[in-house]
Each structure stands twice: as structure tokens, then as C-alpha cells.
Amino acid sequence: xxxxxxxxxxxxxxxxxxxxxxxxxxxxxxxxxxxxxxxxxxxxxxxxxxxxxxxxxxxxxxxxxxxxxxxxxxxxxxxxxxxxxxxxxxxxxxxxxxxxxxxxxxxxxxxxxxxxxxxxxxxxxxxxxxxxxxxxxxxxxxxxxxxxxxxxxxxxxxxxxxxxxxxxxxxxxxxxxxxxxxxxxxxxxxxxxxxxxxxxxxxxxxxxxxxxxxxxxxxxxxxxxxxxxxxxxxxxxxxxxxxxx
Length: 245
Ligand SMILES: [Ca+2]
Ligand SMILES: [Ca+2]
Ligand SMILES: [Ca+2]
Known about the structure:
The chain is an alpha+beta fold. It has 2 helices and 14 strands. Strands 1, 3, 8, 10, 11 and 13 form a 6-stranded mixed sheet that branches. β10 (about 170-175) and β11 form a beta hairpin. It is globular, with a radius of gyration of 24 Å.
């Protein structure tokens, strides 16, 4: 090999070393761009605080309704008023996590209370909840809450909801702001023989397989719309993979 050949070879070897990381970076940038495009111009970010640090909720799995995104009114949620009727109000600010959870935001939040006389641990539950589980309440038609989710497996998912409903109601679900089911009927959990009025908002039920939706992998947004009647509490939604496509 002549001197010129040696020189050319060393330049090419150098280029390989130099360009390999650039190619890797280009792939990363491309992936990032695709995700940004998928989320459109969405300005919300996944919820995180001093307790919950896991970022976007993982699918398949259990989506906790109280971990809707950060970003505020008309970005991560729409609520009919500007106050949290639960955290810091019904549940007086006392420095505790449960009483002050997202108390500065308009979405209304409380938690399951097991006590005597019973509230969320009453004999009128259809399905027993767990104690001290945060949930969204004071729901009204027109309100919505949005989540960044991280779908790990493409496929068709069965969704099941842990909830209460003072009356028959309806919710709608959207992926990336496109409705995938605009009207899911949520059966009332009203029990006439329970004579304690406020407890009609505390009879828990699990609506198994309330709908089925198809999901691609990756980051995307999931929105829960309160469509009709309101008066529901949303605790969590299970996403169970029913079929790999
Ligand atoms: Ca509110
Ligand atoms: Ca509300
Ligand atoms: Ca919850």
C-alpha cells in the first residue's frame, strides 16, 4: 500500500469513527421528532411529584386518574370552575399529601376514606376499593382530563373503570385528540336503601371491559371526557391487552 493509499485509508477509518455517532444521533432525533409529531402541538407534560416519579403511565397497566398531565386549564384538563373542591376544601389543608394533592388545580380530587361511620368502606359497595386511594370527583358534563401514556405493546385493549356514579352517566375517550369512543354508558351506583345522602357518591363499582380500543406503541395522549350527567368519581382505568396484532 502506497503512502497515498495509507493516507486515504486512515481518513476513511477516521470518518467511520466520526460519523457512526452522528448516524446514531440522527436516529435519535428522528425518533424524537416522530414522537413530537404524534403528540402534535400538545403543551402538557406527564404528571410527577415528590411521590410519583415514574413519568408517563405505562400501558398495558393501571392508569391512575388523579395523575392527569401537568399544564393546566385547556391544556391538560377542562374543569367548570377554577377551584379544587376536594383537596384543600372538603379535605382541609393540613400539610398532608392526601389533603393537599394538586390543591391549586381546578380538577376536583378526593381520596377513599375508610372510617366509622363508613364512607368508602360501606356495605353498599359493589366492589371494595382500597383505602386512601386518590380519585377525581365533582365531574360535570363538558369536563375532560388528559394523560400522556406510554404504550409498550401494540394491540387491542380492554378498558375497565373503577368508579362511582350517582346517576346513569356517559363518558367519551380520545387518543391523540381523536374520539375512539364518544359515548360509553356508566351505570349508576345509586342504592336506594342507603339513607345517608352524601354516600350516594361513594358506592364503588368496577365496570369491567367498558370498551375496547386499539393502540399503537409509543407516547400518545389519552383523554377522558365527561359526556353526560356527571356526578361520577374516577379512580383508575385498567388497560388489558386482549390481542396482539
Ligand atoms: Ca373544580
Ligand atoms: Ca369538576
Ligand atoms: Ca386512584
